[in-house]
Amino acid sequence: MARHPMTYAAAMDSFNVETNPRYTPNQLGTNDTYCNKFAHDVMNHANIASPLPGTDCASIYQSLAVTGHAKWKEVTYDVAHARALAGIPTVALTKDHIAVVRPYTGTVSSAKDLVLSQAGRSLYKSKTLNYCWDLTKVSLSSIKFFSYND
Fold first, then answer.
1. What ranges do the domains of the chain cover?
2. Cβ contact 97:137 at 8 Å
3. Where in the chain does DSSP place strands (E)?
4. Does the reported pTM lie above 0.85?
5. Are residues 43 and 89 in contact, defined by beta-carbon separation less than 8 angstroms?
């Protein structure tokens, strides 16, 4: 499948993550979030077609980081940036949160500079990683990056 950053970004943007009620946190009154649904929606988009294994963050993490997956490979933050910039589906992941790495042409000199889209406690179309994870509670080294291989 031919990949392009504009197609990849358009797929993310088509879900209107910041205003779409599907991703509104706390729908059940249990501090529930829908980062996994957003990531699945983006990866299952017809123009992306890179399905994630698992349903929730813990099972996605187990499949990608622990068990390993034939199509999803762990990469460094700089490779994650380069692959997203090439339009290749890429995610940032911990056991309890997932965000989609956006194509971004600016300078990325650390993982904190990666630009992501996410649903979660906050809904972001385009924010750097340090907005998507509270780095006073989560170590940067615990955030893993995975990219899809056709």
1. 5-148
2. no
3. 72-75, 90-94, 97-101, 115-118, 124-128, 144-148
4. yes
5. yes
Q: Which amino acid is at 120?
A: G
Tokens linked to 45: 């988009």
> Tell me, which fold does domain 5-148 have in CATH?
endopeptidase fold (from Nostoc punctiforme) (3.90.1720)
DSSP string, 76-87: -HHHHHHHHHTT
Please name the residues in contact with 62: beta carbons below 8 A apart, sequence gap of 6 or more.
54
Each residue of 10-34: pLDDT tens digit?
A: 999 999 999 999 999 999 999 999 9
Q: Record the tokens describing residue 111, joined without a space.
A: 């993982």
Of 119, 86, 120, 81, give the one whose Cα is nearest residue 101.
81
Give the integer Cα–Cα distance in Å for 14 and 46: 11
